[in-house]
## 1
Amino acid sequence: MAYPRPPFPKQDQTVPGDTAKMSPMPDHGEKTYRGSGRLSGMAALITGADSGIGRAVALAFAREGADVAISYLSEHDDAQQTRDLVEQAGQRALLLPGDIQSAAHCRAIVKEAYDIFGRIDILVNNAAHQQHFDKLEDISDEEWDLTFRTNIHAMFYLSKAVAPRMGEGSSIINTASVNSDMPNPGLLAYATTKGAIQNFTAGLAQSLASRGIRVNCVAPGPVWTPLIPATLPTEAVQNFGSNYPMGRPAQPGELASAYVMLAEEASSYTSGATIAVTGGQPIL
């Protein structure tokens, strides 16, 4: 299948971004992903599931037979579209708006998802915040704190809340990044949290192994999501992904299969792993 290649049209958005305003429109696998019951009977909680990678994973999980709780900040239109995709696949969808910077909110959405679905088999810690800064001095204390609270603190809060509710064979999947190993200096705060996520994943996998809970992470390269036009300079958006071996960014739907593989029972011995989806770009 031919996917869009840069240069892309000039476009700017405000954080957190809106899928409908993107050009080209991201492909979440709406017309291409075909499920085969690999997650039948399961229930998943996915953060940042309103758009981008989160929406693609929600769609794939639903088509594989899982109910999906959709955690998101305030992007209600995008989240409703994800809900529609899950329900069109014949699965239950639960919308959970709110800020995962709050430990109390993280505990509340885990409880609500568990109460509604009666189980949580998969937690996907996917939500993230990033902003581009040319100089260290331009990063405010508040921006540094916001990035860490969204990208790594929430991961701890959610994992801590969900683990006691998970049975043997459950899994936690964290979204890391190529920035975990190849930090972009313009994304210093974001890249630092992504390195922390990879370390957190490896440690948590060991901590939860005795409970039969697997923990892994996916490390994407450039992915065409609303976060890109909302946080990067105009020229970087136009040429996004052009410096990677495939000459383009991934579409969100191209990431979904990695998350499905890590969630399914067939991956019962895979834990503590990082799955790189980088379009041919090596990671260290």
## 2
Amino acid sequence: MDVDVSTLHIILLCLAAMTAGIVDAIAGGGGLITLPAVLAVGLPPHVALGTNKGQAVFGSFAALMRFSRAGLVDGRLARVTFPFGLVGAFAGAALVLLVKPEVLKPLVLVLLIAVAVFLTFRKAPPPGDRPAPAPRPRAQAIGALVALGIGAYDGFFGPGTGTFLIIGFSTLLGHGLARASADAKVVNFASNLASVTMFALKGVVLWKVALPMAAAQFAGGYLGAHLAVKGGDTLVRKVVLGVVLALVLKLARDLVMG
């Protein structure tokens, strides 16, 4: 794949990946940092999506490891959500590879703005307003549907996936934020794994960029999960909001300027 990316750009992308790993492990939305970054250095849309997945899978794996060590991952739920996340992501990634590049780029920008606006204006429910945890069989059925649907979105596009999963698990299953973040990483890792496999088989992952970013994502993901376990949600949520607001302005400018 003949795509030239300078050493300086790779260093900047690694910094973005580490930041994204931290943010994504706690509140989701790391792709809102890395996907615009890889697009900004001039990668074609399909290559940008594939390369983004090539590095993101390492961050979600690191976060999942840390959450598992803390005992926050529901193993019985994970046995359902992991395979459904895989299936959904394979379907989404297969679909995006059928879209022509000239159609994909404006679609990516529109989707980024839609996700960014949603993340900016959403309000987390007060702790007392959370529904009671769903009964086990019902919880597994709901978890499977959430994993399938959002896994497909992740395979097709990606940014905001972790946040959508956290919202789904906290509102539909009554999970607290830390546990919802942990269960979200099970699906996130599955969907990232499926997506990067599909993109790699099609040759649209630029590994000379993805691998350095992956190392940074791994470190960021582990650190972010550690902060979530220790209760550092408030600070990072403010960082997410700032990043999202900045992206809304940037992407709106991109659409206006063409």
